[in-house]
UniProtKB/TrEMBL annotation:
Organism encoding this protein: Actinomyces ruminicola
The protein's name in its UniProt record: Transcriptional regulator, LacI family
InterPro entries from the UniProt entry: HTH_LacI, LacI/GalR-like_sensor, Lambda_DNA-bd_dom_sf, Peripla_BP_I
Signal among keywords: no
SMART domains: HTH_LACI (SM00354)
Keywords tagged on the record: DNA-binding, Transcription, Transcription regulation
Residue ranges constituting the HTH lacI-type domain according to the UniProt record: 9-61
Keyword DNA-binding: yes
Domain of life: Bacteria
Pfam families per UniProt: LacI, Peripla_BP_3
GO molecular function: DNA-binding transcription factor activity; transcription cis-regulatory region binding
């Protein structure tokens, strides 16, 4: 059956307005990663000026009203700076693409949910999926039922920093957590530290486990055997740093440096040191993870591993669009954006190497 010609603006018109080729317009509208951000921004701006809409409804199996449906982002909790940065990336990319964003949240981190609440959470995701253009799960788990529903309903499913291992058929996005753990340890080793502790996240958390693996790998490469008493599994919050950082400092042979799973936990470690009469960084070096606002406003300013949280949110939105607008698309391989070490004032050589 021949598709009727549209009387609206064409990709050729968008290409002429943006000063690019029609092929570039096509790729930009699908969020193809080969197109640079400035070029894609120019194409989308030209499309908006001309009133051009991406032909989402032409996809086989897609609901007729797909183009008007929001992308639904489901967070475990939104009361962290991590969530704020990721949400900013989702919002900025959604605005750029002219896509509506709907936000839901569980209200508690996944490790605190019992089986009944986990089932309730799964049902809530399945219920919202039919009315969504795509679903982005942020630091939650991903179940096989969600993946199955995603395929049956032609609704892209993307996971950001999943709390647990994801079933096959799920596109996931995060930072190079393993490399981040290595970077933190390498910095402390360069300063002369040899006894380095780590306060990590929940035992089942993939990002937390990757960071610990990087920590262990960097120590082993330096010829240092990682000691189990220096690894404390906690949560991604201030109280975890305060409690588990205090436990590390109360050891008979305490570490001279501590890496925390997030900036908030790092501030907790700093407070634990203060309560014991220790100075940071003179008596104890502390490294965080995330590089949120906390890292720049605490005292001392925090040395931390930067992960591009805004970019991660934006890439998740682009991935949803890419999957939704490409024929025969399948889940993408895990996407990892690079971490980098930001050195500030909370690390220094140890007093007694």
């Amino acid at each position: 059956m021949t598709r009727p010609r549209s009387s609206g603006p064409t990709q050729a018109a968008v290409a002429a307005r943006a000063g690019v080729s029609v092929a570039t317009v096509s790729k930009a509208l699908r969020a193809d990663p080969v197109i640079s951000t400035p070029t894609r921004t120019a194409v989308l701006a030209a499309a908006r000026e001309l009133g051009y809409r991406t032909p989402m409804t032409a996809l086989p199996g897609a609901p007729a009203d797909n183009a008007t449906r929001p992308v639904t982002a489901v967070f475990d909790t939104v009361d962290t700076q991590y969530a704020a940065y990721v949400l900013r990336g989702l919002l900025e990319e959604a605005e750029l693409d002219g896509v509506w964003l709907r936000v839901r949240h569980i209200g508690s981190s996944m490790d605190q949910l019992d089986q009944e609440h986990l089932r309730t959470w799964e049902r809530s995701v399945l219920e919202v999926m039919p009315s969504s253009y795509g679903v982005v799960l942020v630091t939650t788990g991903v179940t096989s039922a969600m993946v199955e529903a995603s395929g049956e309903q032609h609704v892209p499913l993307v996971a950001i920093d999943p709390a647990t291992a994801v079933p096959e058929g799920t596109s996931s996005i995060g930072a190079t957590n393993h490399r981040g753990g290595q970077q933190a340890v390498a910095h402390l080793l360069d300063l002369g530290h040899r006894r380095i502790g780590i306060v990590t996240g929940p035992a089942g958390s993939i990002p937390a486990n990757e960071r610990v693996a990087g920590y262990r790998s960097a120590l082993a490469t330096a010829g240092i055997t990682p000691e189990s008493e220096l690894v404390r599994a906690g949560r991604f919050d201030y109280d975890s740093g305060l409690v588990h950082g205090g436990d590390l400092l109360d050891l008979d042979a305490p570490p001279t440096a501590v890496i925390a799973c997030c900036d908030a936990a790092a501030v907790g470690v700093i407070e634990a040191a203060r309560r014991r009469g220790l100075r940071v960084p003179e008596d104890l070096s502390v490294v965080g993870f995330d590089d949120t606002l906390t890292a720049t406003v605490c005292s001392p300013r925090l040395t931390t591993v930067h992960q591009p949280l805004v970019d991660i949110g934006a890439e998740a939105m682009r991935t949803v669009i890419r999957l939704a607008t490409s024929r025969g698309s399948r889940a993408l391989s895990p996407i990892e954006l690079a971490t980098s070490l930001v050195v500030r004032d909370s690390t220094a050589p140890p007093l007694h190497p």
